[in-house]
Amino acid sequence: MDPIPKGAVLDYHDYGNPDGAVRNFALFDDQDESNKVLVGEYGVARNNCNEVLWKDHRKRPWWIARVAEAVFYLGVERNPDKVFGCAFAPLLQNIESYQWNPNLITFNANTSVIPKSTSFHVMGLLSNNRFTTLLSVEYSEEYDPRFWVAGLNDDINTYVWKGAVYNTTTEGEFEINFPGSQ
């Protein structure tokens, strides 16, 4: 008997390392469509090779982690029929007293200065360019180190392509052709 009843909503949380977030790019590809997923909390909070211990979490955001979060988020966007929401966590950090790192938004009593993390800007870039229809993609190469997703925003009749390149020093090309664009 399947331990997860059909129709149950699953709440996924992950505070892993960059390589783990990239491995999870395809996490929801084979998810049973009868069980929707809410990614209730995700964020890369520790270095590669560290165990999941809050004391080992990075004090400040760093670049490879943000690219890894983008790769994970692209994987979420490839599965709109299975994943219905995605939220970064930890969300808010009072710079004077906090428990977790890194956070999306940092604040203190000075409301004129509210620093937003690099994760905030990655999420903004990806979420401000939405699509309403996922497009199937023909590709000749495997994902990794290049990851992508494509869609159509029916509201404004615009094609949207999103991509991220993770942890490589080699050059790579993308050739993107949408119907009617040649």
Automatic annotation (TrEMBL):
InterPro entries: Alpha-L-AF_C, GH, Glycosyl_Hydrolase_51
Pfam families in alphabetical order: Alpha-L-AF_C
Presence of the UniProt keyword Zinc in the record: no
GO terms assigned for molecular function: alpha-L-arabinofuranosidase activity
Transmembrane residue ranges: none
Keyword Transit peptide: no
Involved pathway(s): Glycan metabolism; L-arabinan degradation
Ranges where the Alpha-L-arabinofuranosidase C-terminal domain occurs: 40-181
Alphabetical UniProt keywords: Glycoprotein
Any one GO BP annotation for this protein: L-arabinose metabolic process
Name of the protein in question: Alpha-L-arabinofuranosidase C-terminal domain-containing protein
Species of origin: Clonostachys chloroleuca
